[in-house]
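Help: why these numbers?

___
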Amino acid sequence: MKEITITALEEGQRLDRVLEKYLSRASAGFLYKMLRKKNITLNGKKADGKEKLSRGDVIRIWFSEETLEKFTSPSPNTGWPCTRLDIVYEDEQILLVSKDAGMLTQKAAASDVSLNEYVIGYLLESGAVSAESLQSFRPSVCNRLDRNTSGIVAVGKTTAALQELSKMFRERTIHKYYQALVIGKLEEEKTIDGYLIKDEKKNQVKICSKSVSGAQRILTRYVPVGRCTGKDGKHGLTLLEIELITGRSHQIRAHLASAGHPVAGDPKYGSRERNAYFARTYGLHSQLLHAGRIVFPDADGPLGYLSGKEFTAKRPELFEKVLSGEREARNNP
């Protein structure tokens, strides 16, 4: 017999979902049959699998050791990758990490190592999760950033937090603010409008001023917060804080480029001439775009204690190096 006591990590999941993870080699039909025959019980009683689990609930699986071994996946390999993570904030429910440019948020291919894997490695090392607990629940990132965009990524450490964070990002109640260094001189706050079409094969988007078939409307608000005269005094740059009113793939980069102000260093939507200068002068080979601030909405539920709280992540060293080299002058010192 195997006994599983539900912890804060798993609470909020349905019983059948936990069983599907723990007994991953068993079919759904087999699991429901075992529930009907009371070979699997919840708190000593018969269950149908749809019950939502709470902390302290006890699942008992009345199988022989041989049967358990047959249907249970091996414990996840504890050799998860580890690296230094820039932790912005952490509590028992969530983790906010400032991702480096160049790191994937989630895997794009089976062989990839992403922030998601590094987070699990970190949580195992810190003791926040165990190899056994990963069989029934795996912490996960809740928002994505482009590989070469740096900044805050939110992680749900428990089922309840993961569900709530995912809902906030999906419904756009959590406010995300980016900083970008763009080509040209911008002096006023503005909201720009447009329509985005994505080319899946090229992993690139195009911005249109009018709605066309397959296009999605986008709204991007920016506020100038600093400016650079440029080393030669001829090529101005503006530091923007940007809020995505809509959230589409490559929206900030493509939208600003379509408005004549590409992000410095952007290899896909930027200025080839200016990018060559930044590469030669600073060793910059990716866009200076940083998800530097998030603000939690007023909310009830498991993350209600975060209502109205704001978290910030400092800009990367290379971002600061370019600002300093190009003689930044802040609008708001």
